[in-house]
Amino acid sequence: MKRRFSGCGWACCCGVQGRGIEKVKLLASKLCAAKPGTLVLFADESDQLRVVFARSSDLTVDVAAILKRTLEKFGGRGGGRPSLAQGGGLTPNQPKPY
Question: At a CB cut-off of 8 Å and minimum separation 6, what does 6 contact?
Answer without folding.
Answer: none
